[in-house]
TrEMBL record:
The keyword Signal applies. This is DUF4126 domain-containing protein. It comes from the Bacteria. It comes from Cellulomonas xiejunii. Residues 1-23 form the signal peptide. Keywords: Signal.
Amino acid sequence: MGVIARSAVLGLAAGGRSSVALAVPVHAATRGHDGPAARVLRGLATLAVLGECVVDKLPATPSRLVPPQIAGRLVAGATGAAALAVVDGRRFPAVVVAALAGGAGAFAGSVAGASWRQWAADDGPDALRPDVRAALVEDVVVLTTARALAH
């Protein structure tokens, strides 16, 4: 997969969990390195993603589509995509295009994720809150995508 497609897919994943936008380039950049610094970086990136997966399910967590949250996801998607392009050895023009693709992907992923959660929540009562059930499905999709991009 080319760097622009990977950037757009990373942006889509960042629309679901913004922390993956930075975790993927960290894991990609430290792949093959087993020193303490690389392990700490990978550990911190993984903790950030897992923490966001937990916080996302709290009732007080605001919608990802309100201005501060959507802006953060767009910045995360663009920054992560640019970092992924740099890790991939790309230079200036390709890095800018990757950032734009990552930002656009983050917007699309945010809207799609919020729409999915709303649709699933309207699906009826369940043992878990329907929104939590939908969020867990979203976690699986986002984390599987992030893992594929990092390797």
